[in-house]
Specification:
The structure is a single chain. 78% of the residues lie in helices and 0% in strands. The chain is an all-alpha fold and 360 residues long. The N and C termini lie far apart (51 Å).
C-alpha cells in the first residue's frame, strides 16, 4: 500500500518536476553550460510526467478516501459525493485565495489592468489568463466528480450486484449524455472541454484500479527483504521509466503512455528512497505544500525571475532558488490560511456555546 507519507513524497517529486518542466521549457535554456541544449530539452520533456504522477496519486488517494465513507445510514453514493464536495470546497478556497492574491498584486502593485470578466473567468476556470498552469484544476474537478461513479461501477462488477447493474448503466449513460449536451449546446464550455486530457484521466483511473485490486500490496509481499535489493530494484525501475519516456516523447506536451509509466515510476521512487530518511523527509515537506507551490510557481517566477537571473547566470542555480522562493511563499500562505481557519473555528465554537447558553 502507498502510505500517506509516501504519497506526500511522490507529490514532492512531482512538484519539483513540474517547476523544472515549466522553467526549462524555453528552447535555449541550458541546465549547465557543459550540458547541451538537446539533453536539457529531453530532461524537460521527461519532467512532464509530473502531471501523470499527480493524476495517479489522486486516483489512488481517492480510492482510499472513498473506502472510508462506506459506513453509515445514507446510501454509499450520497456519502461519497458529500466527501467529494468537502474536498472541492477546500480546494477551491485555496484556489480562489491565490486568484484573489494574484489579482490584487496585478492591480495594486504592478498596475496591470484587469476587468471583472477576466477575474471571474479565471476564478471559475473558463479562461485562465492569469496562469496557464491552473488548467489542471479542470482535470482534478473531473477526477473528483468521476471517482464515486467509478467506485460504484467497480463494486457493481466485482461484487456482482445483479439487479442493480441497470443503475450503473443508467449513470454512465446520463454522464455521457450530459457531456454531449454541454459540448454541443453550451459554447462557453468549449475551452473547458478542449483541455480534457484522456491520458491523465486514464492515469487517475489506473491509480484507482491499482488501489482497488490491491496491486501494490501484492508487490509489497513479493519484494525481497534485503534493503539493498529493494533500493537497486527501485533504481532500475526509475531508470527504465526515464529512458522509456525520453525515447518515446516527441514534444514537451507528450503524455500518451503516462498512465502506464507513472505507476511504475511511483513504485521505483518509493523503493529507491525508502531507506533514505533525509531525502524522504525533504520530499514529504515539499509534498505537503505542493498545492500552493503548483498554484503560485509561475506567478513567483514571473515576479522574481529577472532579479534572480541577475544574481547568477547558471540556470540550475536559478531553478533551485525559484524552488526555494516558491516553497517559502507557499509555507507563509499555508500558515496564514491555517491561522485564519483556526480563528474561524474558535469563533464558531464560541458562537455555539453562546447559543446553548441563550437557549437555557
Amino acid at each position: 500500500m502507498i502510505t500517506k507519507k509516501q504519497s506526500k513524497m511522490l507529490q514532492g517529486i512531482a512538484i519539483l518536476l513540474m517547476i523544472y518542466h515549466h522553467f526549462f521549457l524555453a528552447p535555449d535554456t541550458q541546465l549547465y553550460r557543459f550540458i547541451n541544449v538537446e539533453l536539457t530539452r529531453k530532461a524537460d520533456w521527461f519532467a512532464k510526467i509530473c502531471v501523470g504522477l499527480f493524476s495517479f496519486i489522486s486516483g489512488y488517494g481517492m480510492c482510499v478516501a472513498l473506502s472510508k465513507v462506506r459506513a453509515g445510514g445514507q446510501p454509499v453514493l450520497c456519502r461519497q459525493y458529500q466527501s467529494v464536495g468537502r474536498r472541492l470546497v477546500r480546494l477551491f478556497l485555496k484556489y480562489w485565495f491565490i486568484v484573489a492574491l494574484d489579482v490584487l498584486l496585478c492591480v495594486c502593485l504592478f498596475q496591470e489592468p484587469l476587468t471583472w470578466k477576466e477575474c471571474l473567468e479565471n476564478a471559475f476556470l473558463i479562461h485562465l489568463s492569469l496562469s496557464g498552469s491552473w488548467w489542471f484544476m479542470r482535470e482534478y474537478l473531473i477526477f473528483l466528480l468521476l471517482a464515486p461513479i467509478l467506485d460504484m461501477l467497480l463494486d457493481g462488477i466485482w461484487e456482482n450486484h445483479g439487479k442493480r447493474r441497470w443503475v450503473y448503466s443508467t449513470v454512465v449513460l446520463l454522464c455521457m449524455g450530459t457531456f454531449a449536451v454541454l459540448k454541443l449546446f453550451v459554447p462557453a464550455m468549449d475551452s473547458f472541454f478542449d483541455l480534457i486530457q484522456p491520458a491523465f484521466i486514464a492515469a487517475f483511473i489506473v491509480g484507482f484500479l491499482l488501489k482497488k485490486c490491491g496491486a501494490y500490496e501484492f508487490v509489497e509481499r513479493k519484494l525481497p527483504e534485503n534493503r539493498m535489493l529493494q533500493t537497486a530494484l527501485g533504481i532500475v525501475l526509475t531508470v527504465v521509466v526515464i529512458a522509456s519516456r525520453v525515447t518515446l516523447a516527441t514534444d514537451a506536451s507528450w503524455a500518451k503512455f503516462d498512465f502506464i509509466l507513472a505507476p511504475i515510476f511511483a513504485l521505483g521512487t518509493i523503493l529507491m528512497f525508502r531507506y533514505t530518511m533525509g531525502i524522504t523527509g525533504l520530499l514529504e515537506t515539499l509534498g505537503k505544500h505542493s498545492v500552493y507551490m503548483w498554484l503560485i510557481h509561475t506567478m513567483v517566477y514571473d515576479r522574481t525571475g529577472s532579479l534572480v537571473r541577475r544574481l547568477t547566470s547558471q540556470s540550475f542555480c536559478v531553478y533551485m532558488i525559484e524552488v526555494a522562493v516558491t516553497f517559502a511563499v507557499s509555507w507563509v500562505l499555508q500558515a496564514v490560511v491555517e491561522k485564519i481557519g483556526k480563528r474561524l473555528l474558535v469563533d464558531r465554537e464560541k458562537t455555539g456555546r453562546l447559543q446553548k447558553i441563550l437557549k437555557k
